[in-house]
Amino acid sequence: MFVVVVGCGRVGAQVARGLVEDGHDVNVIDENPEALQRLGGDFAGGFIQGVALETTVLEAAGIERADAFVAATNGDNTNLVVAQVARDRYEVECVIVRVLDPARARFYEERGLVTVCPTRTAIDSISQALRTFSATDGEGA
Amino acid sequence: MYAVIVGGGKVGSNVGRALLRMGHEVSIVESRPQRFAMLEGEFEHMARYGDGTEISVLEAAGMARADVCIAVTGDDEDNIIIGQVARGQFAVENVIARVNDPRNQQHFDLLGVAPTVCATESILSLIEHEVPQHSLVHLVSLRRENLDIMEIGVVGGSRADATALGDLPMPRGTLVISVLRDHVGRVASPETVLAAGDQVVVIAEPGQESALMEIFASE
Q1: How large is the ipTM?
Q2: Does any CB of chain B come closer than 8 Å to the CB of residue A120?
Q3: A103: which chain B residues are within 8 Å (Cβ-Cβ)?
Q4: Who among A53, A55, A88 is closest to B77 (CB)?
Q5: What Cα–Cα distance (Å) separates residue B36 from each residue in A77, A79, B30, B39, B47?
Q6: How many A/B residue pairs have CB atoms within 8 Å?
Q7: Residue A104 with chain B: CB contacts under 8 Å
Q8: May I ask the CATH class of domain A2-135?
Q9: Where residue B13 sits, what CATH number does that domain have?
Q10: In terms of C-beta density within 10 A (0-12 exposed, 13-18 middle, 19 or more buried), how is residue B42 classed?
Q11: Are B140 and B90 found together in one domain?
Q12: Which of B71, B95, B131, B150 is the most exposed place for a label (fewest CB within 10 A)?
């Protein structure tokens, strides 16, 4: 499949590398040209420098033929807007959006976006780890 | 009326001040600490500190009982999210949003955040109006109605010159509203006979410009 990834930070870059390793075509968009370094010198996918809100940039990245779209910049609102543009304007079949704020993530999930909320995951994992501890070692502590 | 203004820059604070003077109730949400301190000095408890794209901040600002939400931050993605959350989460009926970069207008339209105001676009259309490059000038776009209002100069020797409006083959989805002649505007009727130099105001569905130019502005 062909995937467009917006945001080449820790998350976006690793997702893109993993996809290429699995044999998929990937184009990554980031406004900072230096973000390219995160992909490593051997990255076989494409890199487009630009602001993802601009349709010319999205189209240069091939969004019109994308099977999947990942919005993973460090801005929740940028991610939520470009994800909706990918879904509603370019009719990309699979759109995944990273949202740090759990409340906003829930709001847009209820409106049909596939959201990934690292904050929620951290809260759940930490709480679970503490519950496990309290049920065993921490007994009576 | 209760208005929640998100973004306390020049636009937000001036709108807030004007609404207060008109006797309305106002809250202004601002996320920059320094700017907030300034606003608090003037607006006191009506200024609220926080990220206006966070649902809890909007809730604390009383968005649930707002009659109107005015999203005027300097970031278009923020204004879009504020508009969507105000409508979707708080059922605010009236949302007015500022477009900072005219290239983002299409995103506001696509994602249902309307009406919008864009200073750049307004200035450009004023320039077009004051210094016309063409004999057709867009006056207003009624986005929700999907209609444009435009002004066209009647060119001598065109199809429209010396012809009654009722006899013109107007394209479907267009209507002449008024005729301006010698600085006097009159509501148009089918009997109005046009002359070169008249300015007609036309309301039209989008995409009729070339058909209208053909009638009014081609010799």
Answers
A1: 0.90
A2: no
A3: 54-56
A4: A53
A5: 21, 26, 6, 5, 7
A6: 49
A7: 53-55, 81, 85
A8: alpha beta
A9: 3.40.50.720
A10: middle
A11: no
A12: B131
